[in-house]
Give the backbone structure.
Amino acid sequence: MNFVLLDVAVESGRGTAPQAAGIRAKFRRNEKTMPFENTSLSMNQSHSRDTVFSGTGELLLKSVPLNKITLRVAGIVGESVTDGPGIRFVLFVQGCPRRCPGCHNPQTQCLGGGTFMTAGEIMERIEKDPLISGITFSGGEPFLQAEKLVPIARECRRRGLNVMTYSGWTFEELLEKNDPAWNALIELSDIIVDGPYLQEFRSSLVKFRGSTNQRLVNVALSLKTHSVQTL
């Protein structure tokens, strides 16, 4: 089975990149944090965005049926309470270039491993479970398959589910990439857990993370304030 690559374009006349790309150069490290108890509130507020993007540009994906979009998947956990707030559907994508020492999921690193699933098959599983409050993209490195995850994230948002995405890159690095599909996944995510796993900073006390250098980034607030805001 072959991958179906999605062509991405930026709407002309309203800027050359979505909000995430337009402000990437303005970001600065800001250690101000919000209480984690406010997470659900900030997520619900961000769902008021009916379009995929806000700001200076709107990313347009060609209309491709979900059953024609194929991903490499390492695994799925149908109901998890350890990969984000609430009960979550967790999609572990296959492939990661970072090879962090002590990685919790080393079997997900091989770029040619995993199994193939369509976005349609994934959405069918999500829709069958009324208990799910959100979806988490983990891995592996989700941003390696960003263009395949964007339609899934968009469909989840339309159904009132929040989106949480893990990445070995920092939030600033994700923005600096200035890739249209990456920008799309950034803006569709309510929370991004960023940064590589570092064994020397390992901690069992931080929520939903493996090491203390990783951050729970409030995406909407970070894009609004042009600085990284954490939960």
Summary: The longest helix spans residues 146-158.
